[in-house]
Amino acid sequence: MSTMTHIRQTASEGDDLNEDGGASIYERLRDDIIHGRMKANERLKVAELASRMGTSTNPVREALQQLRGEGFVIMTPNRGARVRPIDEEFVRDICEIEVLIEPALTRWYVGIVTKAEIGEMERIQAEIEALNFGDETKHSNLDLQFHRLMYDRHYNRHAVDLWVRHRQILRAISRGFPTSLSRQANVLQEHRDLITCIKNQDSDGAATVIARHVEGSGRHIIERLRLGKRQA
């Protein structure tokens, strides 16, 4: 049985079809690639995908073009589309983009943050500290709350949306392995340092901390991917 047969036939809750069906197809294909239901270098045949998803070929073509733009799909002349491997190079590329985006978002946030928001950051961080990575899923959700609080009010929605997409990708990849003890300690300290810089209105310091945070996350994921290869 080919991997294609494992593609979900229906959209998940909250993923209703738009009028042209394209958005839902894009989300479903992206999710299948991230979670490994579609294997690295697998051929993506438009007619077969359209049949599986109960739609015409045009929405599938549009979804594949969007996925190509985001790096999930590779298209080559005379060979069509195939799944890009979610590997070290893929993670590196994302993190190199994020180390440019997140410091800029953070600098802006330092200039507009309120006392109430600082209090909320401290509350979320207290929950993260109390959990102490005892539940990786809960930690990931709390960590997302922490960073969304910083970025959600930014005027550049394209930058924020790109951060959200990258966050989803890295989160899905990292589900396959636990966070190392050294990375756990670094995450907690980086959050503390970030809050301190924000409270002190130190935009340069906050930008430096968040860049270190992103780089550390990328290194950790790449190290774990390498470890998985060695153990395979």
UniProtKB/TrEMBL annotation:
InterPro entries noted in UniProt: GntR_C (IPR011711), TF_FadR/GntR_C (IPR008920), Tscrpt_reg_HTH_GntR (IPR000524), WH-like_DNA-bd_sf (IPR036388), WH_DNA-bd_sf (IPR036390)
Protein origin, superkingdom: Bacteria
Residue ranges constituting the HTH gntR-type domain according to the UniProt record: 19-86
SUPFAM superfamilies: GntR ligand-binding domain-like, Winged helix' DNA-binding domain
Biased composition (Polar residues): 1-12
Gene3D superfamilies on file: GntR ligand-binding domain-like (1.20.120.530), Winged helix-like DNA-binding domain superfamily/Winged helix DNA-binding domain (1.10.10.10)
A Pfam family it matches: GntR
Signal peptide segment: none
Keyword annotations from UniProtKB, A to Z: DNA-binding, Plasmid, Transcription, Transcription regulation
SMART domains: FCD, HTH_GNTR
Region (Disordered): 1-21
Keyword match DNA-binding: yes
A Gene Ontology molecular function term of the record: DNA binding
Family matches, as PROSITE patterns: HTH_GNTR
Keyword Membrane: no
Protein name: GntR family transcriptional regulator
Species annotation: Pararhizobium polonicum
Biological classification of the source: Bacteria, Pseudomonadati, Pseudomonadota, Alphaproteobacteria, Hyphomicrobiales
